[in-house]
Amino acid sequence: MSELWATFWTVLRDPRIRTVLILGTWGIVGLVTIIAAYRGTADLALVVLQLPYVLSGGLGGIAIVGISLGLASVHFDRVESIEERRELAQLHKRMMQLTKTVAERRSP
Amino acid sequence: MTSQTFAPDVLEHLGDPTTHEFRAGSRYGTLRAVRPLSPVPTFVGMAVVALGLAVIGIAWSRTAGEADVSRQVPYLISGGIFGLAMVLIGVTVVNIASKRRETVLREQQTRMLADAVDQLGRVLGDETSHLPR
Predict the structure, then answer these.
(1) What is the distance between the alpha carbons of residues A77 and A65, in angstroms, rounded to a whole number?
(2) CB A107 to CB B5 under 8 A?
(3) In this complex, do B112 and A92 lie within 8 Å of one another by their Cβ atoms?
(4) Can you give the C-alpha Rg of chain A in angstroms?
(5) Strand, helix or coil at B128?
(6) What is the reported pTM?
(7) A residues 80-99 near B, CB within 8 Å?
(8) What ipTM, to 2 d.p.?
(9) pLDDT digit string (tens) for A42-93?
Protein backbone atom coordinates (compact mmCIF):
# COMPACT_ATOMS: atom_id res chain seq x y z
CA MET A 1 0.00 0.00 0.00
CA SER A 2 2.80 2.39 0.94
CA GLU A 3 4.56 1.43 -2.30
CA LEU A 4 1.44 2.38 -4.20
CA TRP A 5 1.32 5.73 -2.45
CA ALA A 6 5.00 6.29 -3.15
CA THR A 7 4.46 5.57 -6.84
CA PHE A 8 1.37 7.79 -6.90
CA TRP A 9 3.27 10.61 -5.20
CA THR A 10 6.21 10.30 -7.59
CA VAL A 11 3.85 10.50 -10.55
CA LEU A 12 2.11 13.55 -9.01
CA ARG A 13 5.44 15.33 -8.49
CA ASP A 14 6.13 15.25 -12.23
CA PRO A 15 5.34 18.84 -13.34
CA ARG A 16 3.98 17.65 -16.69
CA ILE A 17 1.40 15.38 -15.07
CA ARG A 18 0.55 18.03 -12.48
CA THR A 19 -0.12 20.59 -15.19
CA VAL A 20 -2.37 18.19 -17.11
CA LEU A 21 -4.30 17.38 -13.92
CA ILE A 22 -4.76 21.06 -13.04
CA LEU A 23 -5.88 22.00 -16.54
CA GLY A 24 -8.18 18.97 -16.69
CA THR A 25 -9.70 19.99 -13.36
CA TRP A 26 -10.36 23.47 -14.69
CA GLY A 27 -12.02 22.00 -17.76
CA ILE A 28 -14.29 19.90 -15.56
CA VAL A 29 -15.06 22.97 -13.42
CA GLY A 30 -16.13 24.78 -16.60
CA LEU A 31 -18.40 21.92 -17.63
CA VAL A 32 -19.90 21.73 -14.15
CA THR A 33 -20.55 25.48 -14.29
CA ILE A 34 -22.42 25.08 -17.57
CA ILE A 35 -24.47 22.22 -16.11
CA ALA A 36 -25.21 24.31 -13.01
CA ALA A 37 -26.40 27.15 -15.25
CA TYR A 38 -28.66 24.71 -17.10
CA ARG A 39 -30.12 23.41 -13.83
CA GLY A 40 -30.63 26.99 -12.63
CA THR A 41 -32.43 28.16 -15.75
CA ALA A 42 -34.54 25.01 -16.03
CA ASP A 43 -36.19 25.77 -12.69
CA LEU A 44 -37.14 29.31 -13.67
CA ALA A 45 -40.10 30.45 -15.75
CA LEU A 46 -39.07 34.04 -16.27
CA VAL A 47 -36.45 34.97 -18.87
CA VAL A 48 -35.37 37.96 -16.78
CA LEU A 49 -34.26 35.56 -14.05
CA GLN A 50 -32.69 33.08 -16.46
CA LEU A 51 -30.35 35.51 -18.23
CA PRO A 52 -27.94 35.99 -15.28
CA TYR A 53 -27.49 32.21 -15.23
CA VAL A 54 -26.79 32.23 -18.96
CA LEU A 55 -24.15 34.88 -18.47
CA SER A 56 -22.40 33.62 -15.39
CA GLY A 57 -22.79 29.89 -15.84
CA GLY A 58 -23.15 29.50 -19.58
CA LEU A 59 -20.70 31.99 -21.00
CA GLY A 60 -18.43 31.90 -17.97
CA GLY A 61 -18.31 28.10 -18.17
CA ILE A 62 -17.47 28.22 -21.88
CA ALA A 63 -14.71 30.72 -21.11
CA ILE A 64 -13.21 28.45 -18.43
CA VAL A 65 -13.35 25.39 -20.71
CA GLY A 66 -11.78 27.41 -23.55
CA ILE A 67 -8.96 28.64 -21.30
CA SER A 68 -8.18 25.16 -20.00
CA LEU A 69 -8.19 23.63 -23.50
CA GLY A 70 -6.03 26.43 -24.93
CA LEU A 71 -3.47 26.16 -22.15
CA ALA A 72 -3.49 22.35 -22.45
CA SER A 73 -2.66 22.73 -26.14
CA VAL A 74 0.25 25.06 -25.28
CA HIS A 75 1.45 22.63 -22.61
CA PHE A 76 1.45 19.55 -24.86
CA ASP A 77 3.20 21.44 -27.66
CA ARG A 78 5.90 22.58 -25.24
CA VAL A 79 6.45 19.10 -23.80
CA GLU A 80 6.90 17.63 -27.28
CA SER A 81 9.16 20.48 -28.31
CA ILE A 82 11.37 20.07 -25.24
CA GLU A 83 11.85 16.37 -25.97
CA GLU A 84 12.69 17.10 -29.60
CA ARG A 85 15.19 19.82 -28.68
CA ARG A 86 16.81 17.56 -26.11
CA GLU A 87 17.38 14.89 -28.77
CA LEU A 88 18.68 17.48 -31.25
CA ALA A 89 21.09 18.84 -28.64
CA GLN A 90 22.43 15.33 -27.98
CA LEU A 91 22.83 14.74 -31.71
CA HIS A 92 24.61 18.05 -32.13
CA LYS A 93 26.96 17.31 -29.24
CA ARG A 94 27.77 13.87 -30.67
CA MET A 95 28.48 15.40 -34.10
CA MET A 96 30.86 17.97 -32.60
CA GLN A 97 32.66 15.26 -30.64
CA LEU A 98 32.98 13.18 -33.81
CA THR A 99 34.27 16.14 -35.80
CA LYS A 100 36.80 17.01 -33.12
CA THR A 101 38.03 13.41 -32.94
CA VAL A 102 38.45 13.16 -36.71
CA ALA A 103 40.21 16.55 -36.86
CA GLU A 104 42.61 15.61 -34.05
CA ARG A 105 43.44 12.30 -35.69
CA ARG A 106 44.15 13.99 -39.00
CA SER A 107 46.15 16.93 -37.65
CA PRO A 108 49.93 16.64 -37.76
CA MET B 1 43.01 8.32 -48.79
CA THR B 2 44.99 11.57 -48.79
CA SER B 3 46.30 13.02 -45.55
CA GLN B 4 44.73 16.27 -44.46
CA THR B 5 46.20 19.12 -42.45
CA PHE B 6 43.93 21.48 -40.58
CA ALA B 7 44.53 25.07 -39.60
CA PRO B 8 44.57 25.68 -35.82
CA ASP B 9 41.45 27.88 -36.05
CA VAL B 10 39.45 24.89 -37.32
CA LEU B 11 40.44 22.79 -34.33
CA GLU B 12 39.85 25.77 -32.04
CA HIS B 13 36.37 26.26 -33.43
CA LEU B 14 35.45 22.67 -32.63
CA GLY B 15 34.77 23.60 -29.05
CA ASP B 16 31.84 23.09 -26.75
CA PRO B 17 28.67 23.09 -28.89
CA THR B 18 26.60 24.19 -25.93
CA THR B 19 28.22 27.64 -25.96
CA HIS B 20 26.95 28.53 -29.44
CA GLU B 21 24.97 31.75 -29.39
CA PHE B 22 22.39 32.67 -31.93
CA ARG B 23 20.56 35.91 -32.12
CA ALA B 24 17.01 35.18 -33.16
CA GLY B 25 14.53 37.69 -34.38
CA SER B 26 17.15 40.16 -35.65
CA ARG B 27 14.94 40.90 -38.63
CA TYR B 28 12.42 42.55 -36.27
CA GLY B 29 14.79 45.47 -35.71
CA THR B 30 13.85 47.65 -32.79
CA LEU B 31 10.38 46.02 -32.35
CA ARG B 32 11.58 43.86 -29.47
CA ALA B 33 8.05 43.29 -28.20
CA VAL B 34 7.08 41.33 -31.33
CA ARG B 35 10.22 39.21 -31.50
CA PRO B 36 9.42 35.49 -31.29
CA LEU B 37 11.37 35.07 -28.03
CA SER B 38 9.81 38.09 -26.36
CA PRO B 39 7.50 37.34 -23.41
CA VAL B 40 5.36 40.41 -24.19
CA PRO B 41 2.78 38.63 -26.42
CA THR B 42 2.25 35.98 -23.72
CA PHE B 43 1.63 38.63 -21.07
CA VAL B 44 -0.63 40.57 -23.44
CA GLY B 45 -2.64 37.40 -24.12
CA MET B 46 -3.00 36.67 -20.40
CA ALA B 47 -4.07 40.26 -19.75
CA VAL B 48 -6.72 40.02 -22.48
CA VAL B 49 -8.02 36.77 -20.92
CA ALA B 50 -8.22 38.40 -17.48
CA LEU B 51 -9.98 41.41 -18.98
CA GLY B 52 -12.46 39.16 -20.78
CA LEU B 53 -13.32 37.32 -17.56
CA ALA B 54 -13.72 40.65 -15.76
CA VAL B 55 -16.05 41.90 -18.49
CA ILE B 56 -18.20 38.74 -18.18
CA GLY B 57 -18.30 39.23 -14.41
CA ILE B 58 -19.39 42.88 -14.76
CA ALA B 59 -22.05 41.91 -17.31
CA TRP B 60 -23.38 39.25 -14.95
CA SER B 61 -23.57 41.68 -12.01
CA ARG B 62 -25.38 44.29 -14.13
CA THR B 63 -27.77 41.72 -15.60
CA ALA B 64 -28.64 40.39 -12.16
CA GLY B 65 -29.62 43.91 -11.12
CA GLU B 66 -32.08 44.44 -13.98
CA ALA B 67 -35.72 43.39 -13.97
CA ASP B 68 -36.40 43.97 -17.66
CA VAL B 69 -35.18 41.53 -20.33
CA SER B 70 -34.84 44.29 -22.91
CA ARG B 71 -32.27 45.92 -20.62
CA GLN B 72 -30.46 42.69 -19.90
CA VAL B 73 -29.86 41.70 -23.54
CA PRO B 74 -27.41 44.56 -24.29
CA TYR B 75 -25.34 43.47 -21.28
CA LEU B 76 -25.51 39.90 -22.55
CA ILE B 77 -24.11 40.90 -25.91
CA SER B 78 -21.62 43.60 -24.94
CA GLY B 79 -20.39 42.01 -21.77
CA GLY B 80 -21.08 38.32 -22.14
CA ILE B 81 -20.38 37.56 -25.76
CA PHE B 82 -17.72 40.23 -26.14
CA GLY B 83 -16.02 39.07 -22.94
CA LEU B 84 -16.05 35.49 -24.22
CA ALA B 85 -14.53 36.67 -27.49
CA MET B 86 -11.79 38.46 -25.56
CA VAL B 87 -11.04 35.30 -23.59
CA LEU B 88 -10.76 33.22 -26.76
CA ILE B 89 -8.59 35.86 -28.44
CA GLY B 90 -6.29 36.03 -25.42
CA VAL B 91 -5.89 32.24 -25.33
CA THR B 92 -5.14 32.21 -29.06
CA VAL B 93 -2.51 34.95 -28.65
CA VAL B 94 -0.80 32.93 -25.89
CA ASN B 95 -0.94 29.81 -28.07
CA ILE B 96 0.55 31.58 -31.10
CA ALA B 97 3.29 33.20 -28.99
CA SER B 98 4.25 29.79 -27.62
CA LYS B 99 4.34 28.22 -31.09
CA ARG B 100 6.48 31.06 -32.48
CA ARG B 101 8.95 30.70 -29.64
CA GLU B 102 9.23 26.94 -30.10
CA THR B 103 9.70 27.38 -33.87
CA VAL B 104 12.58 29.81 -33.38
CA LEU B 105 14.28 27.57 -30.82
CA ARG B 106 13.91 24.59 -33.16
CA GLU B 107 15.34 26.64 -36.06
CA GLN B 108 18.31 27.61 -33.91
CA GLN B 109 19.10 24.01 -33.16
CA THR B 110 18.62 22.91 -36.75
CA ARG B 111 21.08 25.58 -37.92
CA MET B 112 23.59 24.53 -35.29
CA LEU B 113 23.22 20.94 -36.48
CA ALA B 114 23.66 22.03 -40.12
CA ASP B 115 26.81 23.93 -39.12
CA ALA B 116 28.10 20.83 -37.37
CA VAL B 117 27.48 18.76 -40.50
CA ASP B 118 29.32 21.38 -42.58
CA GLN B 119 32.25 21.28 -40.19
CA LEU B 120 32.37 17.52 -40.37
CA GLY B 121 32.30 17.77 -44.13
CA ARG B 122 35.22 20.21 -44.09
CA VAL B 123 37.16 17.98 -41.75
CA LEU B 124 36.55 14.97 -43.96
CA GLY B 125 37.50 17.02 -47.03
CA ASP B 126 34.04 16.98 -48.64
CA GLU B 127 34.04 19.47 -51.52
CA THR B 128 30.27 19.98 -51.42
CA SER B 129 30.29 21.20 -47.82
CA HIS B 130 30.96 24.78 -48.93
CA LEU B 131 27.95 24.95 -51.27
CA PRO B 132 25.05 27.21 -50.12
CA ARG B 133 22.13 25.39 -48.53
Answers:
(1) 18
(2) yes
(3) yes
(4) 26
(5) helix
(6) 0.73
(7) 81, 84-85, 88-89, 91-93, 95-96, 98-99
(8) 0.77
(9) 888 888 888 888 888 999 999 999 999 999 999 999 999 988 889 988 998 8
